[in-house]
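Consider the subject:
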Amino acid sequence: DGKRITIEEFGRMFEAWEGWHFQFKILDHCDDDA
């Protein structure tokens, strides 16, 4: 099953998603202050 994701790959994906989500929250907060 080549679709299996290792813990390491999942960790990297989650870190990337968290970073994107964090930036999105900052942008959204700036819009609220504007």
Notes: DSSP finds one helix and no strands in the chain. The chain has one domain: 1-34. Helices lie at 7-33. Residues 4 and 30 are 39 Å apart (CA to CA).
